[in-house]
Amino acid sequence: MSDDAIISPDTRRGDRLPPGQSLTRKWPVLHYGEVPEFDPESWDLTVFPVPLVDQAVAFTWPQFQALPRAKVFADMHCVTRWSKLDNLWEGVPTRELLKHVTVSPAAKFVMVHCEYGFTTNLPVDDFFADDALFATHHNGQPLDPDHGHPVRLVIPRLYAWKSAKWVRGVEFMTDDRAGFWEEWQHGGYHMRGDPWAEERHRPGE
Q: pTM to 2 decimals?
């Protein structure tokens, strides 16, 4: 572990395995659809919409790379029941966005937009947690395309599908709205996804 890393609180638990999880030393590859190609000339990360932020902002790849960086030591728990402990992530803290846009107090949720129209939703407090990161590196190496290169979200306190790969946009919302996996036709995953409460699927209607 890096001496300057932010320590995710779950790594300090006596028992670091949430209910129903099993340890893996490998890093399984799970995603829907094809792996996108990265073009640094056209890539950007957009924050929207007005009026929930004071202005829409789009970071080019060089601008994103120039943002302050941090390291986060965290565990990763997949809804498919594997857990990978002792991950060292590096990237741009999600809180860095607050230096570039003013977010309205009315914004209670975030929709993260990714390549190919993939989305995932989460509460704004989880999105801006101390250990939440736009990650570019894992255990000292750049992310490979299968794991989200060039940028994936990392939200250690939630199941790993919330740590979406290939991030391209952040939408602030007043009301919660289901993302891709949270929609019933794609599995009906839980709207929040706390692994310690086993929030794997949405309650039946």
A: 0.94
